[in-house]
Design goal:
mainly alpha, 82% helix, elongated
């Protein structure tokens, strides 16, 4: 009696089944990762809108007002608000508007960097405030790093979409 592994057709059938299973697993994993990444983008958008509204209505950190003066509230309020709204509009568009997402993320990145620098300056100069603490630097620089990861990923998405349009101009 011969082993089924000796038959070329059986081997081919087994390989096709293995590839189909691998494809199914990779497709599910890819879908989960995309859903997770988009969910995180929605979190960034919501934080930007909420923080922007709160800053514009209640003011910003005292240490930032001491550094930036009267411009502190509009700078630290409008950047996240507009960035969060643009990101949300980009995510809600069908098809998604990756350029709007990128602009929104760059505004949120700018906001995170302004806050990071502001809190660094406040901490190291103390500005006569005994409440300056370094932890906001870690929080906002961490958020800036996360946004850079999203921007890097969107760069790749834009490249793949451009290449697809070039190969399939009628699609």
């Amino acid at each position: 009696m011969s082993d089924h592994r000796d038959d070329p057709l059986d081997r081919l059938e087994h390989q096709v089944e293995s590839l189909a299973i691998e494809h199914k697993v990779m497709t599910a994993q890819s879908a989960w990762e995309a859903t997770n990444r988009i969910g995180l983008l929605w979190v960034h958008s919501a934080i930007g809108v909420l923080a922007g509204v709160m800053i514009l209505t209640a003011g910003t950190a005292v240490s930032l007002e001491s550094i930036f003066g009267p411009a502190a509230v509009p700078i630290t309020g409008w950047m996240p608000l507009i960035g969060g709204v643009l990101l949300a509009v980009g995510l809600r568009s069908h098809p998604r508007s990756v350029p709007l997402e990128v602009v929104g993320l760059f505004l949120l990145l700018g906001w995170d960097l302004v806050l990071t620098v502001g809190f660094l300056v406040a901490y190291f100069t103390d500005l006569g405030l005994t409440t300056s603490r370094p932890y906001p630097v870690a929080v906002y620089s961490g958020l800036a790093a996360l946004i850079c990861v999203h921007l890097w990923t969107l760069r790749k998405v834009m490249r793949v979409r451009r290449e697809h349009r070039e190969r399939h101009p009628d699609a």
